[in-house]
Amino acid sequence: EPEDDLYVFPVSFAQQRLWFLDQFEPNSPFYNIPVAVRLHGQLDPTILQAVLDEIVERHEILRTTFGTENGEPVQLIAPTGQIPLTLIDLRDFPAEERQQEAMRLANDEAKRPFNLTTGPLLRTNLFQIVADEHIAIFNMHHIISDGWSRGVLLQELAALNPAFAAGEPPDLPDLPIQYADYAVWQRKWLQGQVLERQMGYWKKQLA
């Protein structure tokens, strides 16, 4: 249901653990998931920004922040959103220093913490090395991503960028299920007899 233009959903159990860890140790970069991609050939940053906008529109989790209701964490999903692409031109550096500077900046980004309340929980940087070589850095918090999700992001970037560059409409299927749908299902599933069986099993193991 909407709350101040945000849609409120329960968190999954994995998200609840990560939220708790963030409360216990705020401003920690330990659960950052950075991804670096080297891009060769001519690249228009405005097109890459449009691709990112499309991906954020497709995936609600990329528009999600976290709040609390009655002391419990909840997902807060914005109806729209944008992840700004930060362009950093390194061509003013001597040629032999550009890769090293890109590595330094990428490491700094990977260590920069996220704020789960304010977001965004995905940050993007684009380093220009020469006219036809860039390094893109995508940094996400683990509460909205994992190894599989990282692969989905890269696959959709690879599929959408040529289409947008050619002026063609995106050719990706609609997503019938979002992560918030899974969180709702998981919460409903782990109740009653299922919960009792799980609790009984772990009480036996831990005894």
Main beta sheet = 4 strands, antiparallel
Q: What's the total number of strands? A: 8
Distance between the termini: 42 Å
Strand order of the largest sheet: 1-2-5-4
Order of helix and strand elements from N to C terminus: EEHEHEEEHEEHHH
Annotation field: number of helices: 6
- The secondary-structure class comes to alpha+beta
The portion of residues forming beta strands comes to 15-25%
Categorize the overall geometry.
globular
Spans where pLDDT lies below 50 across 5 or more residues: none
Radius of gyration: 20 Å
Give the helix proportion (percent range): 40-55%
Rounded mean pLDDT is: 92
Keywords for this structure?
207 residues, four-stranded antiparallel beta sheet, four-stranded mixed beta sheet, 8 strands
Q: How would you sum up this structure, described in words?
A:
Helix 2 crosses helix 4. Strands 1-2-5-4 form a 4-stranded antiparallel beta sheet, covered by helices on one side. A 4-stranded mixed beta sheet has the order 3-8-7-6, sandwiched between helices. The protein has 207 residues and is of the alpha+beta class. The protein has 6 helices and 8 strands; from the N terminus they run ββαβαβββαββααα. The termini are far apart.
